[in-house]
């Protein structure tokens, strides 16, 4: 009796998990805005849902940045190009005030000399640090494509030229953005899970010239998060273990960053922005799991002069001087782990993350894994059960025979 109930419970569980999760889908539309003769790309995406609309702006004029705004369904974007190209405040507006906004700026690329092979960056050790400013790369568009229901933009930053310091470098940063409007895994490794409210950002540091005085160069990325959230609280970093590495071989962890809400109730926490990534960096173009290294994240910190921090970026065009009342915090992620041979080993390293709104998705066991678990647990149970019946039947029929013989 007990055996039967365990088995049916398992089967029930399997059928529940196997049900394709009912996911909401948005319709995605995009267009380039404020085209200009400087190869500077600004893309506007509009993802309409039944009750609201998500607007995205991806901008490569200066520091690459992303703005995400949730509005009522009918709200439209109003961008005054003349002012926008001059980076003036309030050159981006919405016809109705957004319900929620969050932005991100690729603020700095940091090269550090990892003298003792710890893979941990020490920002205070200025002699072993070089800061590269993303706006000093020459950003050009490699492709803009619609892949299924998603939109992809591939940009490449080349010919680094810091004219003030007279520093130039060869090599490129490839930055690929993908906008999604449905729940699925991305097709490029590490196959992040994305929702209908998210964008993937993928970095490749391809053959970037390192400082000749640094023997053990590694790279780190500093992001600025700007937007609605409690400016007095610090971004919440939450590394989560997962049981399943089916989509990202060998990686059993997801790092999650949540924008702190004004109150502490869960409801508010679930209606905000988040970042998510797997702590893995691939060191070859094939993104082979055996040739990968790790990423390390550091505690976020508040930015003291918030308006200055966003000036000359697309986010200033929207937030303007209001940035002083917003959450503006920086977060650093370094690429590499102890003993991996440093950047010089392959001159290639990647980092991929998701920026989204709402509840960060959790990896669920896939049907295949559930089937394997079900068979793995269920088969022995069936065998035990069958054996039980057989033994019962035998002893019963034996008793029968005995009775017969006794007669
Ligand atoms: C724009 O991009 C094209 C192709 O990448 C390049 O040939 C051209 O020089 C660029 N123009 C400017 C002004 O950077
Ligand atoms: C839209 O709002 C209605 C009523 O509030 C709700 O039942 C429905 O689930 C919402 N749809 C989405 C996609 O959030
Ligand atoms: C767009 O913004 C400009 C400048 O703020 C304003 O003059 C114009 O009326 C706005 N247009 C719409 C359609 O709201
Ligand atoms: C832009 O900022 C200046 C202060 O720096 C302010 O005086 C001006 O009103 C702002 N412009 C708009 C359109 O809000
Ligand atoms: C490397 O290790 C040596 C010896 O432990 C130490 O003196 C030195 O400060 C370390 N260098 C860095 C950059 O951490
Ligand atoms: C860097 O910029 C300066 C000033 O615009 C220019 O003179 C120089 O040729 C540039 N260097 C390279 C390598 O493009
Ligand atoms: C800039 O650096 C190059 C070599 O890296 C040097 O030849 C050139 O004279 C420098 N220019 C200035 C203005 O310092
Ligand atoms: C290399 O690092 C040194 C020390 O930090 C710095 O002075 C120099 O400008 C750097 N060179 C380049 C090409 O970045
Ligand atoms: C996507 O955003 C909508 C808009 O408010 C929200 O209702 C929904 O829960 C979000 N989806 C996820 C998976 O977080």
Automatic annotation (TrEMBL):
GO cellular component terms listed in the entry, alphabetical order: lysosomal membrane
Source superkingdom: Eukaryota
Alphabetical list of InterPro entries matching this protein: NCU-G1
Keyword Membrane: yes
Assigned keywords, A-Z: Glycoprotein, Lysosome, Membrane, Signal, Transmembrane, Transmembrane helix
Signal peptide: 1-18
Glycoprotein keyword on record: yes
Transmembrane segments: 368-393
UniProt membrane topology term: Single-pass type I membrane protein
Subcellular location: Lysosome membrane
Quaternary structure note: Interacts (via lumenal domain) with lysosomal protein MFSD1; the interaction starts while both proteins are still in the endoplasmic reticulum and is required for stabilization of MFSD1 in lysosomes but has no direct effect on its targeting to lysosomes or transporter activity.
Function: Required to protect lysosomal transporter MFSD1 from lysosomal proteolysis and for MFSD1 lysosomal localization.
Family: Belongs to the GLMP family.
Protein name: Glycosylated lysosomal membrane protein
């Amino acid at each position: 009796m007990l055996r039967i109930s365990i088995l049916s419970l398992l089967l029930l569980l399997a059928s529940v998990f196997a049900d394709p999760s009912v996911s909401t889908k948005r319709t995605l539309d995009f267009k380039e805005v404020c085209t200009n003769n400087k190869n500077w790309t600004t893309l506007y995406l509009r993802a309409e849902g039944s009750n609201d609309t998500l607007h995205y702006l991806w901008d490569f004029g200066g520091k690459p940045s992303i703005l995400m705004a949730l509005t009522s369904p009918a709200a439209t974007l109003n961008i005054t190009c003349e002012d926008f190209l001059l980076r003036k405040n309030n050159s981006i507006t919405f016809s109705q005030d957004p319900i929620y906004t969050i932005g991100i700026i690729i603020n700095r690329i940091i090269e550090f000399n990892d003298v003792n092979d710890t893979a941990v960056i020490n920002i205070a050790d200025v002699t072993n640090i070089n800061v590269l400013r993303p706006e000093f790369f020459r950003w050009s568009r490699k492709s803009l494509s619609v892949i299924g229901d998603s939109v992809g933009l591939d940009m490449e930053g080349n010919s680094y030229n810091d004219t003030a310091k007279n520093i130039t470098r060869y090599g490129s940063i490839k930055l690929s953005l993908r906008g999604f409007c449905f729940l699925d895994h991305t097709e490029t490794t590490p196959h992040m899970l994305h929702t209908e409210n998210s964008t993937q950002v993928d970095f490749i540091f391809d053959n970037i010239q390192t400082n000749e005085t640094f023997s053990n160069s590694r790279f780190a990325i500093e992001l600025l998060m700007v937007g609605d959230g409690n400016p007095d609280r610090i971004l919440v970093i939450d590394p989560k273990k997962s049981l399943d590495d089916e989509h990202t071989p060998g990686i059993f962890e997801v790092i999650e960053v949540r924008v702190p809400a004004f109150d502490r109730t869960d409801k508010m926490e679930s209606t905000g922005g988040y970042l998510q990534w797997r702590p893995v960096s691939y060191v070859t173009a094939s993104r082979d799991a055996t040739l990968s290294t790790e990423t390390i994240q550091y505690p976020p910190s508040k930015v003291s002069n918030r308006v200055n921090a966003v000036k000359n970026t697309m986010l200033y065009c929207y937030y303007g001087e209001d940035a002083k009342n917003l959450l503006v915090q920086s977060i650093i992620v370094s690429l590499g782990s102890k003993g991996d041979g440093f950047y010089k080993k392959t001159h290639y390293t990647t980092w991929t993350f998701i920026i989204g709104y709402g509840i960060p998705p959790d990896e669920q066991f896939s049907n295949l894994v559930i089937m394997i678990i079900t068979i793995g647990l269920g088969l022995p149970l069936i065998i035990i059960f069958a054996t039980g019946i057989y033994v019962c039947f035998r002893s019963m029929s034996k008793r029968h025979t005995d009775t017969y013989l006794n007669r």
